[in-house]
């Protein structure tokens, strides 16, 4: 009943582990069954349930872009039972993956527009999938700006990719760390993401803003976007809530009538405003 | 107007308390808790022989605490719960206004721990005779018979945690059952999961259970859970000369070392 | 299919159970266990408590048990191997002597588990269950089936329904093809019933106490009425008794259990009343206090499910109220919501 058991994960081999920041790792995962891998596809914004057998499952967005086939990546911070076990695994070990679940960032609708990515801390991973998916089709978009902030320099994830984006002439990257988080040789900005965004005086015309970060960052970033004329429909974010099934059945991730797993996790600010405060 | 209604009205009017936890008529022939803050609610207060629920569990509930200074209608078990909660630093002296319902319907007010302690010294705090009979039966069983008895009872358990939720002493923000690093107790309501949970809970109530019986009353599957914790009362008394819920400044028997502690459990 | 009416003698019920057993069907029926009544596998009629108002738990566990395996695996040096859990392991089963609210309760579960992607663990078991409900000759003050579209003789969800029409005779309504197939196996015990039997004469009188559409409408509009939810839930102690005895509550958890070589992933009942249900690892909890969790319980059944799955998630059986240790009476709370003037 392989096809019928909706809770049966694919078996994945950990092909590569990258230490991103303290307690933060990226796993590159390869399908153990090649056929399953060939048949697998997803879109940017979607998530999955990753399992460590014997410990349980944990929910993350797929952090790699959907334009790259043959593997998926996830980036996680060691926090609870499953992520702690995940962090103790080695390359070559096997984990489970169910997915892809949820809706997507409608990047095809963004053709011809400028994109402004705003991410904080460990929320860059879900956005990294979108960023690379757009960069892989770079000619379809106008300006691409990335504002990324973390608590400290050490907490910035994807340091190699940040360096790569910094070098690219077709990407404007602004990195910032919270006051006190800078090192003597830090060349980026110092300040909270909303403050830096304000300083950047973003242009809202024909631009889509994609915001991912901790609730407090989102709370203070939205008013800045509003100040620069971003309409609610121009602003996208991705929500997270505790999940078990990922399929709209187990009953815990709903925000009012909306299931984050099934109706989300991607929402526009227009949709967000209609949701009750339950996330 | 009953004495209770008069008294609570006065307490609310002079702002001695902001809310009073008492009893009202419930569904069918049941009695249930009411959180009195208004004139209308005061009129719903009742007091009769059926008002047996130990209401002190509510003193630990977040949204009840937020109502402000609380008054509570207490029976003997509730007074002992208050003493035990005090000894565990969960309630401060004077924090809760206590009205005790005497058997004749008259009310005694307690505004400090000392007066409750004094009162309890001359009050029957023992286990009911029918419960004593059940315990005697259990104790007369062989270990194997007792094991089978409890396994049969735990078979019914659905792990709704009503016993824990109803127990005034189960106020932990994160119960051992809910800890998952490591997962001490299997979450599933299967044979091992049920057994582990109930044994863990009984152990955590040894020397703390005030024999109110709320756990058994709460159980929708009619498991006599009170017998499990009641059985631990006399060994604690015999070994450490300690009885739960009698003194506000009591030291907890199982976490207090005394040089003359019996060591007869060491084989 | 068109409903068929037959007569069965009470004195033949025992033979009926024997027939089911001899054909190899497991028979699940209400069994008295002290003060509680459980739905369990029985061998003969004398074990069955047909006179009880309602079993303590609902019949949902026949298709959605409190613990069930959804995955098996071994952990080997060469890598983890998974073994599928085969739904063919489930046998054709008869649910006997359950109440109409048990039978109709499955429609909520059907909606949740039957929605894409389909949950075969539930659907296989449900599909292999034939439900013989007994209509209700009596009701108590917790019952409110008629207020949520059901009734003491409601046939929705039943394959066969039995109604006692005299001391000797039972009216058998054959309602579905599955029921017809099963009835064919005991056709020798059945005689034709006259067309003019008025079943309603033999049913309990359950008064309608609220207008369900009004309650749905007002519940939907009441999310932000924090005072309402707080007032209703102050005495709620946050256990899961209501959810676990409920015929329509379907929320679940997964837990892994393993030894050094192999393990299983289990699906367990869970409840929105528990504070841990929505707790994030970070410590943040979107439903932090009990009043929010009580709101979720009511809104899920009376606002979200009607809108998204076109079914009210409540059968009015009143089990939650009977099981509640602190007398949270859902009928009373829903009536209050229905009477509330929305401002």
Give a description of the structure.
The complex is a heterotrimer of chains A (279), B (267) and C (343). Chain A is of the alpha/beta class and 279 residues long. Chain A folds into two domains: 10-101, Beta Barrel (Elongation Factor Tu (Ef-tu), domain 3); 107-238, 3-Layer(aba) Sandwich (Rossmann fold), CATH 3.40.50. Chain A is 22% helix and 30% strand. Chain A is built from seven helices and 15 strands. Chain A has helices spanning 34-39, 81-87, 124-135, 159-167, 193-200, 215-227, 269-274; strands at 10-21, 24-31, 47-52, 56-61, 72-77, 94-101, 114-120, 144-150, 172-177, 189-190, 207-212, 235-238, 254-255, 258-259, 266-268. In chain A, the strands form three sheets. A seven-stranded mixed beta sheet of chain A has the order 10-9-8-7-11-12-15, with helices on both faces. In chain A, helix 5 (193-200) packs parallel to helix 6 (215-227). Chain A is globular and about 50 Å long. By secondary structure, chain B is of the alpha/beta class. Chain B folds into two domains: 3-121, no CATH class; 129-242, no CATH class. Chain B contains twelve helices and five strands. Chain B has helices spanning 3-13, 39-44, 62-65, 76-87, 113-121, 129-140, 143-155, 162-166, 191-205, 214-218, 225-230, 233-240; strands at 19-25, 31-36, 70-74, 96-101, 107-110. Chain B has a five-stranded mixed beta sheet. In chain B, helix 4 crosses helix 5 and helix 7 packs across helix 9 (191-205). Chain B is globular and about 60 Å long. By secondary structure, chain C is an alpha+beta fold. Chain C folds into two domains: 4-68 and 85-202, no CATH class; 212-339, no CATH class. Chain C has helices spanning 13-22, 100-114, 120-127, 177-184, 212-220, 226-233, 241-245, 290-309, 319-323, 330-339; strands at 4-9, 27-33, 36-42, 67-76, 79-83, 93-98, 129-134, 160-164, 169-174, 190-192, 252-258, 262-269. In chain C, strands 3-2-6-7-8-9-1-10 form an eight-stranded mixed beta sheet. Chain C starts with a strand and ends with a helix. The model of chain C has no long low-confidence stretch (mean pLDDT 95). Chains A and B meet through loops of A and loops of B.
């Amino acid at each position: 009943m392989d096809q019928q058991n909706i809770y049966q994960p694919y078996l994945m081999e950990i092909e590569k582990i990258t230490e991103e920041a303290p307690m933060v790792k990226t796993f590159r995962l390869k399908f153990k069954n090649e056929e399953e891998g060939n048949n697998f596809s997803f879109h940017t914004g979607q998530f999955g349930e990753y399992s460590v057998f014997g410990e349980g499952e944990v929910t993350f967005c797929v952090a790699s872009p959907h334009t790259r086939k043959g593997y998926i990546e996830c980036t996680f911070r060691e926090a609870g039972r499953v992520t702690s076990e995940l962090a103790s695994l080695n390359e070559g070990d096997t984990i489970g993956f169910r997915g892809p679940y949820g809706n997507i960032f409608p990047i095809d609708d963004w053709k011809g527009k400028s994109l402004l990515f705003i991410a904080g801390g460990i929320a860059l991973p879900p956005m990294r999938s979108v960023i690379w998916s757009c960069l892989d089709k770079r000619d379809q978009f106008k300006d691409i700006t990335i504002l990324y902030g973390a608590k400290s320099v050490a907490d910035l994830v994807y340091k190699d990719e940040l360096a790569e984006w910094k070098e690219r002439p077709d990407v404007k990257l602004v990195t910032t760390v919270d006051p006190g988080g800078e090192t003597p040789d830090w060349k980026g900005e110092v300040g909270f993401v909303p403050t830096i965004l304000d300083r950047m005086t973003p242009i809202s015309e024909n631009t889509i803003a994609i915001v991912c970060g901790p609730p407090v960052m989102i709370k203070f970033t939205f008013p800045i976007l509003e100040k620069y004329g971003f309409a609610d429909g121009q602003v996208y974010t991705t929500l997270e809530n505790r999940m078990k099934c990922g399929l709209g059945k187990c009953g815990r991730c709903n925000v009012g009538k909306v299931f984050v797993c099934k109706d989300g996790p991607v929402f526009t600010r227009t949709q967000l405003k209609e949701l009750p405060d339950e996330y | 107007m009953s004495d209770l209604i008069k008294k609570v009205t006065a307490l609310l009017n002079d702002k001695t308390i902001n809310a009073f936890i008492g009893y009202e008529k419930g569904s069918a022939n049941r009695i249930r808790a009411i959180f009195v803050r208004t004139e209308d609610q005061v009129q719903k207060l009742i007091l009769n022989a059926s008002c047996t629920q130990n209401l002190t569990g509510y003193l630990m509930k977040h949204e009840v605490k937020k109502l402000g200074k609380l008054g509570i209608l207490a029976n003997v078990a509730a007074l002992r719960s208050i003493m035990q909660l005090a000894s565990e630093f969960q309630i401060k002296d004077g924090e809760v206004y206590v009205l005790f319902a005497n058997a004749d319907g008259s009310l005694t007010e307690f505004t400090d721990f000392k007066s409750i302690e004094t009162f309890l010294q001359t009050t029957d705090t023992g286990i009911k005779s029918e419960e004593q009979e059940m315990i005697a039966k259990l104790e007369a069983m062989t270990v194997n018979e007792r094991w089978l008895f409890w396994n049969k009872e735990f078979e019914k358990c659905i792990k709704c945690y009503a016993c824990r939720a109803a127990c005034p002493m189960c106020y932990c923000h994160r119960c051992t059952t809910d800890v998952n690093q490591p997962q001490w107790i299997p979450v599933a309501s299967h044979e091992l999961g049920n057994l582990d949970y109930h044994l863990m809970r009984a152990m955590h109530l040894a020397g703390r259970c005030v024999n109110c019986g709320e756990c058994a009353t709460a159980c929708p599957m009619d498991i006599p859970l009170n017998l499990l914790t009641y059985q631990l009362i006399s060994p604690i008394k015999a070994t450490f000369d300690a009885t739960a819920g009698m003194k506000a400044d009591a030291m907890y028997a199982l976490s207090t070392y005394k040089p003359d502690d019996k060591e007869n459990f060491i084989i | 299919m068109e409903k068929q009416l037959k007569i069965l003698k009470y004195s033949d019920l025992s033979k009926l159970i024997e027939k089911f057993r001899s054909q190899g069907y497991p028979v699940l029926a209400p069994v008295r266990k002290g003060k509680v009544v459980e739905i369990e596998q029985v061998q003969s009629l004398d074990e069955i408590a047909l006179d009880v108002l309602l079993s303590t738990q609902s019949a949902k566990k026949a298709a959605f048990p409190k613990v069930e395996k959804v995955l098996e695996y071994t952990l080997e040096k060469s890598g983890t191997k998974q073994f599928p859990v085969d739904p063919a392991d489930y046998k054709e089963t008869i649910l006997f002597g359950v109440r109409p609210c048990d039978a109709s309760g499955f429609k909520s579960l059907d909606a949740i588990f039957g929605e894409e992607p389909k949950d075969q663990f539930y659907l296989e078991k449900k599909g292999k269950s034939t439900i013989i409900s007994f209509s209700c000759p009596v009701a108590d003050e917790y019952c409110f089936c008629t207020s949520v579209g059901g009734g003491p003789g409601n046939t929705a969800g039943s394959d066969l329904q039995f109604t006692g029409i005299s001391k000797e005779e039972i009216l058998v309504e054959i309602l579905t093809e599955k029921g017809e197939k099963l009835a064919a196996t005991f056709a020798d015990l059945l005689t034709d019933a006259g067309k003019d039997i008025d079943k309603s004469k033999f049913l309990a009188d359950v008064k309608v106490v609220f207008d369900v559409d009004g309650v749905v409408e007002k519940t939907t509009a009441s999310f932000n009425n924090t005072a309402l939810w707080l007032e209703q839930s102050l005495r709620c102690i946050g256990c899961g008794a209501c959810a676990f005895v409920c015929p329509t509550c379907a929320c679940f958890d997964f837990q892994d259990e393993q030894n050094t070589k192999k393990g299983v992933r289990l699906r367990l009942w869970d409840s929105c009343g528990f504070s841990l249900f929505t707790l994030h690892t970070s410590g943040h909890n979107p439903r932090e206090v009990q009043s929010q969790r009580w709101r979720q319980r009511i809104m899920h059944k009376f606002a979200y499910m009607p809108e998204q799955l076109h079914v009210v998630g409540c059968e009015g059986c009143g089990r939650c109220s009977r099981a509640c240790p602190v007398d949270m009476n859902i009928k009373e709370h829903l009536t209050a919501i229905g009477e509330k003037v929305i401002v």
